[in-house]
Write a structure and sequence with these properties.
heterodimer, A: disordered N terminus, B: FAD/NAD(P)-binding domain, 7-stranded mixed sheet, 17 strands
Chain lengths: 218, 554
């Protein structure tokens, strides 16, 4: 793919490769998922999962929480990302059900393989959890340990990663990104009209002037 | 706003049927209906209006609400005509009333004089179809002015020493500068370059029924919910509707131009939303379906009399495609720019519009602009520097720090017209209606890639002068994805070397006219929509004159 031309595009630049294929399929239900995530995190009663069992949801939530962790600012957990994914898998992302169903058991097997005695990802320490993510992440740094993944498991990690980013950063006005948690983190105000000055560099701008040489010539 | 539209029967022989309602089709609808003709516009996409335009980036990124749909309309790609094409997403265009002008960036500089006569100036380029236009900048100037005043363009006349002559100033001042624009301007001045306020087809002052820009920050890729972006939807289609002579018929997918035994076009055959087929009869057909779909429609219209497709006696329909070279270089600064606020581009420079091939060692030229066009999700996938972790604390920290401190410099450049670069019909792949899909064949001329890298180097130079903390980009790479769709039914005086004459009339079919990006002879330096709209105003004038003299079917 032509990186430079591609970068011109809101579309392919934003969501390239796998995500484009994923994302281009079922938009209305994506919003439904986002809405579900919003209501779930707002609800006083424990929300119900529609695709995941509570046990599975706990594991997925733990994975999303390492992709965008909670620190001094909110992470994927506070943004309700696991609910976004849950609804997605029952609606517009049904074709990814298999990826999750096959990927999660292999993921858990990897946890036990790497850390004998620990059977669940959610039970591992954050450091151990990150080791597991590294072992699956073939798009970033070289794996720290040599593990052979079936294609499905690699696809699982990349799918969760992309779902997590989308669930974290979608416009909260349209559901998901609970209370704008993701936008707070990146510093995007939740307004939809702005006035100049917009930022640090234009606040003292005196108005357009031509290049001085040119002005001198006139 | 479908008010007071006439409802023509398909059996009514209207004066003109226009295929496509985008930058060119919208203008032609406005002009021809204003001039007294009965017009039907057939648009394949839906009729959306301001209330349909949301800020949900997910909607835009995933539903293709405003653009062609990769599942309904699959495409394929190959580098050369010898290869078998592979199905992949290869083209992006607006698919709604207003076309691509609904979601575009709205950069609206004019082409310069050189763009029309460059072949004469620098001589032939071996192995290319590089040639002069049959019209000059002077011929088009009155229509550029018409676009600025009638459609609404913000800008500052004479701010760039490289600007071509103009007969009137802009109708309204430039939009407010952004931090990216100030950084760009100050650094360019240090380097002795000549930045100027970007001419934008976005209102800086309100017009009847349209708000000035509210700086919402969801611009490129999105429809404007206050009508500030000067799409043909808000600036032309509504004028056409008010004439009472123009019907806009959305969800109408034209797949064949029918001709009679005399080789005249008799109307356009289309699928309605329920996929029923209709023939809209007309005295003349004007195709404005864009640089991909216009040649496709001509090829789909092949019949016994025109076995290679309509208007294709030259064999050049779909060929000489130009996509514009270039790309972005991204920079990071110490303080927040907050460039996510507002429209995209506030400063441009044209110091490198015309490069001397003897000096730089390649043909080409271009413009740079200062911009920010990331959405939040888009930024997470495409806005962080190479080497940024893909997940975890540092990924989050990078998003958190960089989102408000990033800007881009877009490098816009020439593409040379090559006969092998084309849109054609894929022999195997079919769309959801069972019609042959678009096949993109493209391999950039080496000079186009050299130019891209040369412009990227200038962008890096500018970031150095600006004191950026970090700046990065990617080397120019061969294109596999088409956005600017130019040159595929080009204009010329010679029927062997072109498809349409300077009146936009096809050489082969007397009452068939083409006007859109396909009409361009050279690529300009990016930002073709302004020129497409100017050509449409001029085409409307020429076609009206022919019709009034009885020379279309006479």
């Amino acid at each position: 793919m032509n990186e430079s031309l591609n970068r011109r595009l809101f579309l392919s630049r934003g969501i390239s490769g796998l995500t484009a294929v994923w994302a281009s399929t079922h938009w209305p239900a994506l919003l439904a998922a986002a809405d579900h995530a919003r209501h779930a995190t707002q609800s006083a009663t424990p929300p119900k999962f529609e695709f995941f069992t509570p046990e599975q949801a706990k594991e997925i939530d733990a994975i999303t929480s390492r992709i965008i962790p909670t620190d001094e600012t909110p992470g994927a957990r506070e943004a309700g990302v696991v609910y976004f994914i849950d609804r997605a898998l029952n609606t517009f992302q049904k074709d990814a059900q298999k990826t999750y169903q096959e990927g999660l058991p292999e993921w858990q097997a990897r946890v036990s393989e790497m850390f004998p005695g620990i059977t669940k990802f959610s039970a591992a320490t954050p450091e151990q959890q990150d080791e597991v993510l590294h072992s699956f992440d073939e798009g970033g740094d070289a794996p720290r340990r040599a593990f052979r993944s079936r294609h499905g498991a690699r696809n699982f990690f990349e799918t969760v990663r992309q779902h997590t980013i989308m669930g974290f950063l979608i416009d909260p006005d349209y559901g998901g990104n609970h209370e704008g948690a993701g936008w707070k983190v990146i510093g995007r105000e939740r307004e939809h009209t702005f006035q100049p000055p917009f930022g640090y560099y234009d606040k003292d701008y005196p108005g357009w002037q031509p290049l001085e040489e040119e002005a001198d010539k006139k | 706003m479908t008010v007071d539209q006439p409802k023509y029967k398909t059996s009514d022989e209207v004066d003109f049927v226009i295929v496509g309602s985008g930058a060119a089709g919208g203008i032609l609808a406005k002009e021809l209906s204003t001039n007294g003709f009965r017009v039907v516009v057939l648009e394949q996409g839906p009729y959306l209006t301001e209330s349909d335009f949301t800020h949900s980036e997910v909607e835009i990124l995933t539903q293709n609400k405003l653009t062609n749909h990769p599942e309904l309309q699959p495409t394929s790609f190959r580098k050369t005509p010898e290869e078998k094409a592979t199905p992949q997403r290869a083209v992006l265009y607006g698919r709604c009333v207003g076309g691509t002008s609904v979601h575009f960036t709205a950069n609206f500089w004019r082409f310069h004089e050189i763009d029309f006569v460059e072949r004469s100036k620098i001589g032939p380029i071996a192995g290319t179809g590089f040639t002069d236009w049959p019209i000059t900048y002077a011929d088009l100037e009155p229509y550029y002015t018409k676009v600025e005043w009638e459609i609404g363009v913000s800008g500052l006349a004479h701010a760039s020493p490289f600007d071509p002559p103009r007969s009137k100033p802009y109708p309204m001042p430039p939009l407010p500068v952004k931090s990216s624009g100030v950084i760009f301007e100050r650094a360019a001045h240090k380097l002795g370059w000549h930045p100027f306020p970007a001419p934008m087809a976005i209102l800086s002052q309100p017009r009847p029924g349209r708000s000035a820009c509210i700086q919402c920050g969801f611009c490129l890729g999105f429809g404007c919910e206050v009508g500030a972006k000067s799409s043909s939807l808000v600036a032309a289609i509504r004028v056409a509707e008010r004439t009472g002579r123009c019907e806009i018929r959305p969800n109408s997918y034209v797949h064949r131009i029918e001709t009679d035994s005399n080789g005249r076009a008799i109307g356009a055959l289309y699928f309605d939303e329920q996929r029923n087929t209709h023939l809209q009869k007309a005295k003349a057909v004007v195709v404005c379906a864009n640089g991909a779909e216009t040649p496709r429609l001509l090829l789909l219209s092949a019949n016994k009399q025109f076995p290679n497709g309509l208007a294709n006696s030259s064999g050049l329909v779909g060929k000489y495609l130009m996509l514009n070279s270039g790309g972005t270089v991204t920079g990071l600064f110490e303080h927040p720019l907050n460039d996510y606020k507002g429209y995209c581009v506030s400063r441009v420079l044209h110091d490198f519009y015309e490069l001397d091939p003897q000096k730089v060692g390649f043909y080409g030229g271009g413009g740079l602009d200062a911009r920010y066009d990331f959405t939040p999700i888009g930024f997470a996938f495409g806005g962080v520097p190479p080497g940024t972790p893909r997940w975890g604390k540092d990924f989050k920290a990078t998003l958190s720090h960089n989102f408000s401190r990033t800007m881009e410099i877009f490098c816009h450049g020439t593409s040379l017209p090559l006969e092998n670069n084309s849109f054609s019909l894929d022999p195997d792949l079919k769309d959801a209606w069972g019609l042959p899909a678009l096949c993109l064949t493209y391999k950039d001329h080496p000079d186009d890639l050299k130019l891209g890298n040369w412009l990227f180097a200038r962008a890096h130079e500018l970031y150095e002068a600006a004191g950026a903390q970090k700046h990065w980009g990617f080397p120019a790479a061969e294109s596999q994805f088409a956005v600017h769709l130019l040159g595929t039914c080009r204009m010329g005086n010679d029927p062997k070397g072109s498809i349409i004459n300077p009146d936009h009339r096809t050489h082969d079919v007397k009452n068939l006219f083409l006007c859109d990006g396909s009409s361009l002879v050279t690529s300009g330096r990016g930002q073709p929509t302004m020129t497409i709209m100017a050509l449409a105003f001029r085409a409307a004038y020429r076609i009206t004159a022919l019709a009034k003299r009885g020379e279309i079917n006479g």
